[in-house]
Amino acid sequence: MDTRLQLFKEAFIKRHEKGRELKAKGKRLLGWICTYVPEELIMAAGAIPVRVTGPLGDTPRANSYLPSNTCSTMRSCLDAALAKTYDYLEGVVFSNSCDNMGRCFDIWRNHSGYSYLHFFNTPHSRSKNAFRLYLYELERFKVSLEALLNVNITDEAIRNAIRLLNEERELLTKLYELRAENPPPLTGTDAFFVVASAMTLPKEESIELLRKLLEEPPKPLQDLKDRPRILVSCSFIDDEAKLVNLIEESGGVVVVDDSCCGMRYFKDIVEEAKPSLQAIAERYLNKVPCPFMEHYEDRFKHVKDLIKRYNVQGVIYYCVKFCDVHLFDAPMLMEELREMGIPCIFLDWSHTELDWSPLKTRVEAFIESLR
Questions:
Q1: What SS3 class is residue 66?
Q2: CATH class, range 218-370
Q3: Does the pTM exceed 0.90?
């Protein structure tokens, strides 16, 4: 592995220690859970946005409050909050992205111990009314942040935040473009930790790491040449990138993803020439949609375009157990992929998974079928 790529993995693994160090230096950090939460406003308020994710393993604390058929991502995130894993955060911002997230917000309000929790009411379409609602939510969020952090969020501060985030997005896009090569210069696991660190580091530090990596891009990895090229479509990938590792240990290589832990996080920039809040609203509602949005056909087209651009030979649909929006989405997407002649497989998993060997067996068989 290029030693520079190891820096991203280390940054993500040590993100909690980093968060506590920053807090000790007087920095203020605010958590967010869904990619529809506008980081721009958090940064414009002078805080550092940090994505809240859940670790693998049992969730004894959260089990006391949630039914057994709750999405394991929300369960794991709640357990991390109850365990004070994110004790360096001022609070956490939720999005109206699914019923599990909405109802877990209520549990957090009663039991997480955070004095600040905000629910961003993300609309589920791109209609004119949806844009008006998103703009209203931006204003409401702005007022909430100003009260929390005792600041006045200026338009200049918002524009500076837009510029920083746009630069990070453009750098991540350039890195992903390198993965279209055969062989690619980085593994899917490498790419996961690059994006994961971008979601948790201060933006200036993330951008600096990305700049240095792209000044002299990593060399193609010859041992990945002619391996079956895989696209992973999912919501969350576990913090250890266990599935991606399974694919690559089984002889495949993940060359691209349709994931809110990957390309759906950074694809598309905010137009800097437009009024700032309008431009933010347009970017978030027009970006590649998550399955909770109405416009599934746009995401399906995006996936098909990725398959062609990255010469994908097989697709793995990786679904968190009890994630309703992805469970309804999967059969439709897989049907369209099979009509294209693209082999695909559906896998469901949980953060509390104890035995990964059944998944490993299925992944190995799928990779072997592509050779």
A1: coil
A2: alpha beta
A3: yes
